[in-house]
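Milestone 3.1: sequence recovery, worked example.
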């Protein structure tokens, strides 16, 4: 059962490991990145941030979609953390989920800040708009205690 899907370029860190995992009651974190599996340093750092009593799995987008469609993840209370909006959109399309939390997107060229920590450029905003237009509740929220910013209000 998917508890939540989140965009967070850091994938696994204190906010995710403590606040979000506890808030959602997740017992498995699926980290979806098309770059981290080829970066041993980042991979090891992510493994060290693993919350006690929680399974952590790292997959690229294609592997994650395959696992989610196969049903192998159905036994978990799954929290999916995607490195990018593009990956999150692929996961949303594959699962039919209708909610996306945008948490942290790093500053990059031509990006504008939304909320406290989500920098999005025109291409990312276009992907968010596509999801909103497809009735996905996309919102920005860094930590559970923060006010929710509904992305439909951005358009």
């Amino acid at each position: 059962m998917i508890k939540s899907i989140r965009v967070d370029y850091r994938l696994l860190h204190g906010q995710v490991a403590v606040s979000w995992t506890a808030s959602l009651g997740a017992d498995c974190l699926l980290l979806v990145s098309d770059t981290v599996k080829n970066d041993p340093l980042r991979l090891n750092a992510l493994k060290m941030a693993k919350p006690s009593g929680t399974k952590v799995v790292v997959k690229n987008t294609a592997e994650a979609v395959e696992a989610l469609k196969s049903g192998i993840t159905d036994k978990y209370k799954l929290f999916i953390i995607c490195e990018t909006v593009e990956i999150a959109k692929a996961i949303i399309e594959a699962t039919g989920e209708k909610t996306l939390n945008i948490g942290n997107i790093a500053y990059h060229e031509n990006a504008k800040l939304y909320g406290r920590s989500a920098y999005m450029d025109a291409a990312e905003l276009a992907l968010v708009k596509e999801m909103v237009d497809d009735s996905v509740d996309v919102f920005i929220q860094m930590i559970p205690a923060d006010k929710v910013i509904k992305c439909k209000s951005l358009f």
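The two ends are 31 Å apart (CA to CA). The CA atoms of residues 34 and 60 lie 5 Å apart.
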